[in-house]
TrEMBL record:
One of its GO terms (biological process) is aromatic amino acid family biosynthetic process. It comes from the Bacteria. Keywords: Transferase. The keyword Transmembrane helix does not apply. The chain holds residues 71 to 333 of 337 of the full protein. This is 3-deoxy-7-phosphoheptulonate synthase. GO terms for molecular function: 3-deoxy-7-phosphoheptulonate synthase activity; aldehyde-lyase activity. Its EC number is 2.5.1.54. The keyword Transferase applies.
Length: 263
């Protein structure tokens, strides 16, 4: 179902009034984790002001350490909904299991399956049964074929509103958090009709690299970006070093426009 042979024309995923996979480059932005009402409201305002189309933020955080901040859970989803309404932006947040999926469907417009859960097949099937748009991130060490087969699990249960997201893969390189696989963009476009986003934040782990990788992703044909933006990255509870501050995000958005028009 995910293959180009099964469906020739590009899939366009609609999240409220936002279309992903058409002619526009869609920028989804917001903090890594939902920390407080004030933090998400500020982020939402900046995302909106600079031209971001969808607000992101994690309420269920699958952290490497069980002692790291795990997210505000349902309270966080409520904050997201409020901030999204306030800024007039649709919202997306990661789900990690069926209970969190059920909650997210009540409060938000789109869900995300993170890299660590890309092959959580029961979760993929549950999202496939839920009628909600989904961002499916590439697993830490997943091949493109494994990633597309994960998407197939969602489509085969009846949900075709799937957007893929390249977020960097594990290589021997340690200078960046992950290695951004830019070739995945044209390859996925060749193999599948699904839209593809690039996450320049988790793929680099460094805010100073986000702008150049974003431009490269758009030049390579990405349908959009998933970017971490925090009102005060130094104080972020999660992923501060890779988060853009409002000025950084504004400057990214300005430089992205000519690149998007050139493709
Ligand atoms: C995220 O987007 O907040 C996240 C945890 O990303 P990933 O699953 O790509 O590590
Ligand atoms: Mn993060």
């Amino acid at each position: 179902l995910v293959s180009r042979e099964a469906k020739e024309e590009n899939t366009i995923v609609h999240v409220k009034d936002v279309a992903i996979g058409g002619d526009e480059v869609t920028v989804i932005a917001g903090p890594c984790a939902i920390e407080s009402v004030e933090q998400v409201m500020k982020a939402a305002e900046e995302v909106r002001r600079c031209g971001g189309k969808i607000l992101r933020g994690g309420a269920f955080k699958p952290r490497t350490s069980p002692y790291a901040f795990q997210g505000l859970e349902e309270e966080g989803l409520k904050i997201m909904r409020t901030a999204g309404r306030f800024a007039g932006l649709p919202t997306v947040s990661e789900v990690i299991d069926e209970p969190s999926l059920e909650l997210a469907c009540q409060y938000l417009d789109m869900v995300q399956i993170g890299a660590r859960n890309m092959q959580n097949f029961r979760l993929l099937q549950a999202v496939g049964r839920a009628r909600i748009p989904v961002i499916l991130k590439r697993g830490l060490s997943a091949t493109i074929e494994e990633w597309l087969m994960a998407a197939e699990y969602i489509l085969s249960e009846g949900n075709s509103q799937v957007i893929l997201c390249e977020r960097g893969i594990r290589t021997y390189e340690t200078a960046t958090r992950n290695t951004l696989d830019l070739s995945a963009i044209p390859l996925v476009k060749e193999l599948s009709h699904l839209p593809i986003l690039v996450d320049p934040s988790h793929s680099t782990g460094a805010s100073r690299l986000v702008k150049s990788m974003s431009k490269a992703a758009v030049a390579a044909g990405a349908d959009g970006l998933l970017v971490e933006v925090h009102p005060d990255p130094c104080r972020a509870l999660c992923d501060g070093p890779q988060s853009l501050d409002p000025e950084g995000f504004e400057s990214l958005m300005k430089e992205l426009t000519p690149v998007a028009h050139a493709v």
